[in-house]
Amino acid sequence: MNWDDMRLFLAVARAESLTGAGRALRLDPATLGRRIARLEDGLGTALFVRSPRGYGLTEAGERLMARAVQAEQALTEGAEELRGQEGQLTGSVRIGAPDGVANYLLPQVAAAICDANPGLEVQIVALPRVFNLSRREADMAIAVSPPETGRLTVQRITDYRLHLVAHRDYLERHPPIRGLDDLRTHRIVGYIPDMIFDSELDYLSEIGVDRVTLASNSVAVQLNWLRAGAGLGIVHDFAMPAAPGLVKVLPGAVSLRRSFFLIRHGDDRKLARLTRFAGLLSDGIRAEVARLEAQFA
Predict the structure, then answer these.
(1) CB atoms within 10 A of CB 297
(2) CA-CA distance, 138 to 148, in Å (whole number)?
(3) Distance between CA 272 and CA 120 in Å, rounded?
């Protein structure tokens, strides 16, 4: 077994398909499939379960993946030491995050970190769901609630605020809103109810709203509806600078507070490179939330 085999194995395990892995590796999927089959033959065990949905890891594949990830991380750390670049971060780091933080915080925070570390590559995977760090879908993830299971380390990054908002144009065209009861006669923008993947995101039920007229699982789509004057919805304060014209509605009655958590695999605690990056990421998010929220205090 050589490292090139492990590199291909990790790519397929993470993409859960030959097509996705081939695209990342710039390798023909058929060639990749033959290489994986040859690896399995050499090891004398199946590493993947093939199905129309893709490639899923077998129990043996799960065990090998844990070891392969450790080897990958050790190689990255060793390469940095040999380059004598302990003062700078290099290589690639993948962050998984809900699309709110991915759209309105991570771009500027990651860009600033890369400015100070020119050899670093940052990948942001913006998906409205919980990330599986055990399968190494990402090196670390940001979540709105701490996980209850798994070999994970959790660090609270910062609190953030959300308010009910609407565009000035919408408010001028519709009846005044003097209390929560008035919301019944207004069009509401929010999440698709059965696609809310974390109870912390069920904002509207917290204020007694049970009907969403314009719904999306994407924060960016919701914000664009509100920016277009389509209705009222709950928005992160830090996202409001991206949508000029939005104003808070009933700020005394509707003011929510949530937290961001940085989640890492438990085995990564000894990896200096990822630990340093995690520190920079947390500091950057904390500062950016404070800066953006101050504009709408």
Answers:
(1) 6
(2) 18
(3) 15
Q: What is the rounded CA–CA span in Å between residue 194 and residue 216? A: 11
The backbone torsions φ and ψ at residue 21, rounded to the nearest 5 degrees and listed phi first, read: -65, -40
Question: How far apart are the two ends of the chain, measured CA to CA in Å?
Answer: 58
On whether the CB atoms of residues 29 and 65 are closer than 8 A, the answer is no
| CB burial string 222-242: b at 16+ within 10 A, e below | bbebbbebbbbbbbbbbbbeb
Q: Which domains does the chain have, with CATH numbers?
A: 1-82 (1.10.10.10), 158-256 (3.40.190.10)
d(CA 210, CA 71): 50
Cα separation, 152 vs 266, in Å, equals: 4
Task: Please list the pLDDT of the chain residue by residue as tens digits (297 residues).
Answer: 688 888 899 989 888 899 989 988 889 999 999 999 999 999 999 999 999 889 999 999 988 988 887 787 777 667 656 655 557 888 889 999 999 999 999 999 999 999 999 989 999 998 766 656 556 678 899 999 988 777 788 999 999 999 999 999 999 999 999 999 999 999 999 999 988 888 898 999 888 898 999 999 999 999 999 999 999 999 999 999 999 999 999 999 999 999 999 999 876 766 788 889 999 999 999 999 999 999 877
Contacts of 270 (CB under 8 A, 6+ apart): none
